[in-house]
Amino acid sequence: MELHDIIKKRHAAKLFTGEKISSEHLEKLKESIRLAPSSFNWQPWKIKIVSDKKVLESLYKASYDQPQVKTASHLFVFCSFNSLQDNNNKLLDEMKPNMPKEKFDGFKIMLESALKNMSPEEQERMSERELFLAVQNLLLTATSLELASCPMGGFAHAEYAKILELPENLKAIVVVPVGISVEEPRQKFRFAHEDIFF
Length: 198
Known about the structure:
By secondary structure, the chain is of the alpha+beta class.
């Protein structure tokens, strides 16, 4: 499919068959997330992938009984960081051997300056915003593989943290069940061009 066709075809599936997707498809989905863009290349996200049926059942209850959670093949839980410092350090450590010293030194100064000018709250908000770039990669890649998905923000965040035993520096922001849809895509409604562009 052409990219424009993939964008048009993507829809939010509300019920899946429960059938497991192939390991090959799963790896392609993971790679699409890994390649997502981010400001300063910080990649400020961690993704927990859940496929265990018992865990999905618990998360279903923590998602206000939305059936797509427990009927999906896999549930991708996108988590943001409370601070960007650890990611910044990791990025610098991994890039240092692969960059000329002069270029690396300039890059390091730029990153550290950006962090210094951001409050802890701003770092947290930035991480939350950035992860939606990775979410979009997952949604479109799933569609390209003839799979369905459903981005969701409606769930009990504290319950997710407890069930998944998330570390304190991570917060679940959006979840995306992926699998084979039971239903046919519904007709999309979107605002007209003149209501969006000015």
